[in-house]
Specification:
385 residues, alpha/beta, Rossmann fold, seven-stranded mixed β-sheet
């Protein structure tokens, strides 16, 4: 082995704390990180790598629950001087616990409390703490429209006060919420490249051509995302805007009266609807139905988070009727097995991107290439073209 200068100096030995809410994704991230480090070591050909290569970087930890619902975080190995990354999925409603003999599902509030418990267990012994929260806690309550709480900003400030130095999330509903924590790192990454790659590789009949494919934004809030998709794919973009009844509030929202479309003709074209998430799915269903009435061909939907809070019966119905052809969504939040088994669902794996993020942050490398994948998307399309 040739001697060479030190080219990789980590901020500290990396350690990953994976919450139960993120177990499957965390295992994939850990595997990719271990493979990446071994590959880098072989490429560098250096005995001065300054990092012990491991098969796993996951820290042995646990959250213990008492019968009255209280809990505590426990670390079963040393984290002193390590660069710690805490990974948690606050949207995982499949995790359950017993309280007074009753089985309860964990809410986003419970998951966020567990993040704070683990930071408390670290007790300042780690060299640096970063939190990777793929779906941002309280991200839907990110701005104040009247006399109401500002939960997301308060949560971010709590993490800052607990000593967290970096917060990473994906497709934040409103990135300006980072103004609440201007002195620490906050990055919102995107799943655009992985979704486009999955679409092109799995949908053979899909043609990325301006005359055959149109990008649609389901509302004004998703317009920037739709414009980005359209720009990198070289397509036209259309917009639906929601006319709401501001005299009523149903389930915390003003009900939608009608969706109005603005844009070029959709007749005879495939359509790609893009958004950050599907909650109940009603907006997407209404838009897909109207697009079919305008003689659109195949309708595809691409989101980072597919929640379907009201169940997937209607999605099954729209697939069987030929209204929606395929839904692309990431594994950044919990996906029930019945979603994965559905013919209309295509899972997009994000674990390799997160492993790369951890590796780069640990070595204080620039993560700019991970924040803007435009060149990567164009090279992929040229290769496929």
């Amino acid at each position: 082995m040739k001697d060479s200068k030190v080219s990789k100096i980590p901020y500290g030995h990396v350690g990953i704390i994976v919450h139960k809410s993120c177990k499957d994704l965390g295992e994939k991230i850990d595997g990719h990180l271990a493979d990446r480090r071994k590959w880098e070591f072989n490429q560098s050909n250096s005995k001065y790598f300054l990092e012990a290569l491991k098969d796993s970087y996951v820290i042995d930890s646990d959250i213990i629950r008492f019968s009255n619902g209280e809990a505590k975080g426990i670390l079963n190995e040393t984290i002193r001087g390590k660069d710690i990354f805490i990974i948690a999925d606050v949207g995982n409603y499949s995790i359950k616990y017993n309280m007074f003999g009753t089985e309860n599902r964990m809410s986003p509030d419970d998951h966020f409390q567990d993040i704070k418990r683990m930071i408390s267990a670290i007790a300042g012994k780690a060299r640096r703490i970063s939190v990777i929260m793929p779906m941002l806690y309280e991200g839907r309550q990110d701005k104040r429209n009247s006399r109401e709480s500002l939960d997301c900003a308060m949560a971010l400030q709590e993490l800052e006060n607990l000593g967290v130095e970096n917060i990473f999330t994906f497709d934040a509903h409103e990135t300006r919420v980072q103004n609440a924590i201007p002195l620490i790192g906050f990055e919102s990454l995107h799943s655009t490249y992985q979704i486009i790659k999955s679409m092109v590789e799995t949908q053979n009949e899909l043609q990325v051509d301006k005359s055959k494919l149109l990008v649609i934004s389901p509302d004004t809030g998703a317009m920037d995302r739709a414009i980005y998709y359209a720009s990198v794919l070289g397509l036209d973009v259309g917009l639906f805007y929601k006319r709401r009844d501001y005299k009523k509030i149903v389930n915390g929202k003003n009900p939608i009266i009608q969706h109005e479309y603005m844009g070029s003709k959709v007749a005879g074209k495939d359509v790609l609807i893009v958004d950050d998430m599907i909650a109940s799915g009603e907006s997407v269903f209404d838009i897909a139905r109207e697009l079919k009435q305008k003689d659109a061909e195949n309708i595809y939907v691409a989101v980072s988070f597919a929640l379907f809070t009201e169940g997937i019966d209607k999605m099954d119905e729209y697939y069987k009727k030929g209204i929606i052809k395929k839904l692309f969504s990431t594994n950044l939040t919990y996906i029930p097995e019945k979603f994965k088994q559905a013919d209309w669902f295509q899972e997009v794996d994000m674990s390799q991107l997160i492993a790369t993020l951890i590796d780069k942050v640990n070595y204080d490398d620039s993560i700019s290439p991970l924040l803007d994948a435009t060149d990567k998307i164009k090279k992929f399309l040229q290769k496929k073209g």
